[in-house]
């Protein structure tokens, strides 16, 4: 039988219960292997209950000190009850100076106290009892997040100015630098917003007319890392030049915003429009020469394209790649069986092979093929080669790259490129 003896308005602050006639402190912390919350209990005395009832600050300090013991218990272990009980008298019944001294020796959860209103400057100076004079039962998790974000920046030697802070607020990255940025003008002080918008305008002008293209090698919604890096470099340079007072965090969040928006536009663009934007639609105008093409991957999956298809051969192929490309599936082939030729794309090696039939097999003899290799410069290089092949076959690839029939020569060229 478990009865609640004392609880506060915040459900997370530890409760005092009576179980089998014994007083215990009960708190929820951590999670088990199934991600369900864990509950811990340990025994207390009536004198401890009296302080917990009357003194919110001491109650919160005890909670802060016990939480590391709960973390140490992990997903299935028991809390170290002896260690927990040993904290009761020193935190609840000792003089403030002794409590301060204790907190300089033990691990404790700083964020929990900050969320409940602790004075951060006093906490930093080790005066935990004085810091808790303004403690509140209600929790403000954002306050603790802001503290940790500023502490991480301070550890890197970064100090934000008012405009830096406003820019990070505008992109939603003030608390979490890994958050996908977005435009949040309402989060910025109206007095500073015009300055923020001038910085954003600088970035927009710098990347006007540029785009981040699709890269189906990275999946159906994949975009070009090279395009992303190029746009980020361009925006960074422009913003640093026009606004040299900004810290790196502010500059990076602006370039991250520009690149994220460009990538999102690309992902929402149909593959045909993406081909056109990338400048390949003109190459496809003569693709009528190809009447039937076969696409295959390294897992044996096959898809046919025919001339009457409403979509271009290149668009169909790159969608096929986006649907099937994976870490263990990086070889894709386009074959024209009627003409006896094809290309094989090796995404793992940034290379391509063009294959042409020299002699058809007769009787029991196998066909004879000529295989030539070439290095490829990223997704744009692959796009050019695919477009050229569906337009004019292997013969049209001659002008695209240096083709090597000797495999050893090709491997040397590949190693030399990779060593640069």
How far is the N terminus from the C terminus? 72 Å
Mean pLDDT: 91
Order of strands across the widest beta sheet? 6-5-7-8-9-10
Q: Tell me the number of strands.
A: 10
Outline the low-pLDDT stretches. Answer: 281-288
Give helix and strand order, one letter per element, not per position.
EEEEHHHHHHHHHHHHHEEHEEEEHH
Overview of this structure, please?
The protein is α+β, with helices and mostly antiparallel strands and 420 residues long. It has 16 helices and 10 strands. A hairpin with a 5-residue loop joins strand 3 and strand 4. Helix 2 runs antiparallel to helix 3 and helix 9 packs across helix 10. The termini are far apart.
Short description:
With 420 residues, the chain is α+β, with helices and mostly antiparallel strands. The protein has helices at 46-54, 56-73, 81-93, 96-103, 110-115, 120-124, 128-131, 141-155, 162-171, 193-206, 225-242, 248-267, 271-277, 313-324, 378-392, 407-419; strands spanning 2-6, 15-19, 22-31, 37-43, 292-296, 302-306, 331-336, 341-346, 351-359, 368-375. A hairpin with a 4-residue loop joins β7 (331-336) and β8.
Keywords:
four-stranded antiparallel sheet; 420 residues; 45% helix; single chain; 10 strands; six-stranded antiparallel sheet; alpha+beta; 16 helices
Tell me the layout of helices and strands.
Elements (H helix, E strand, L loop, with lengths): L1 E5 L8 E5 L2 E10 L5 E7 L2 H9 L1 H18 L7 H13 L2 H8 L6 H6 L4 H5 L3 H4 L9 H15 L6 H10 L21 H14 L18 H18 L5 H20 L3 H7 L14 E5 L5 E5 L6 H12 L6 E6 L4 E6 L4 E9 L8 E8 L2 H15 L14 H13 L1
Antiparallel strand pairs: 1-2, 2-3, 3-4, 5-6, 5-7, 7-8, 8-9, 9-10
